[in-house]
């Protein structure tokens, strides 16, 4: 791809670094920005820069937040005694889009995957156990991707949860094994939440 402007080429290269964005898509985005007036482009860049510098992670659940606590944790209308454990922030967004869950979340920040150098100590597991003890949680719902890494993580945390007296469930496997929650359609994900299973029966059945 040949460019008559190094400024244009640099902009395309930066956009192409984003996940799922190839050079052709990056070029279309950059050319679109060139059509906008300077004010719109400055506003766009200011919003991105402000997001990156000012966004925080919830001190309670590790979801993205504008302050110390995210809007979900701060919502008194949510079921504070029910925690849905997810791998990442994208999964929170996917579940929220179903409008079928009214509890709160805990973002692990990954799953146990020794081959990728990701062990339990790199995840937000100890903070989850502390929350359960402190907040008198009644139910933990595991909503992790249905694959080996997700199942290993569920098994590990379930063992840690045994001293705690709370119900432990996992979403029903309407999602195919090896799939990812963020790509599941909203209806399938909603039904998986509604038809969640006790973790003991799921683990023993695998």
Keywords:
206 residues, alpha/beta, Helicase, Ruva Protein, domain 3, Dna Topoisomerase Vi A Subunit, Chain: A, domain 2, 5-stranded mixed β-sheet, two-stranded antiparallel ribbon, 42% helix
How does this structure look, described?
- By secondary structure, the protein is α/β, with parallel strands linked by helices.
- It has 2 domains: 6-54, RecR Domain 1 (Helicase, Ruva Protein, domain 3); 72-204, Dna Topoisomerase Vi A Subunit, Chain: A, domain 2 (3-Layer(aba) Sandwich).
- Helices cover 42% and strands 13% of the residues.
- The chain is built from 8 helices and 7 strands.
- The chain has helices spanning 6-15, 23-35, 38-54, 89-96, 126-135, 148-161, 186-194, 199-204, and strands at 56-57, 64-65, 79-86, 103-107, 139-142, 167-170, 197-198.
- It has a 5-stranded mixed β-sheet.
- Strand 1 (56-57) and strand 2 form a beta hairpin.
- Helix 1 packs across helix 2 (23-35).
- The radius of gyration is 21 Å and the shape is elongated.
- The model has no long low-confidence stretch (mean pLDDT 88).
Question: What is the gist of this entry?
Answer:
The chain is of the alpha/beta class and 206 residues long. It has eight helices and seven strands. Helix content is 42%, strand content 13%.
Could you please say which CATH topology of the largest domain applies here? Dna Topoisomerase Vi A Subunit, Chain: A, domain 2
Number of domains: 2
Strand order of the largest sheet: 4-3-5-6-7
Round the mean pLDDT to the nearest integer and report it. 88
User: Helix and strand string, N-terminal first?
Assistant: HHHEEEHEHEHEHEH
User: What portion of the residues fall into strands of 2 or more residues?
Assistant: 5-15%
What is the top-level CATH class of the largest domain? Alpha Beta
Q: Kindly state the number of beta strands.
A: 7
Helix fraction, binned, reads 40-55%
Gyration radius over CA: 21 Å
The structure class reads: alpha/beta
How many DSSP H or I helices? 8
CATH architecture of the largest domain: 3-Layer(aba) Sandwich
Please summarize the sheet with the most strands.
Answer: 5 strands, mixed
**What is the global morphology?**
elongated
Low-confidence stretches: none
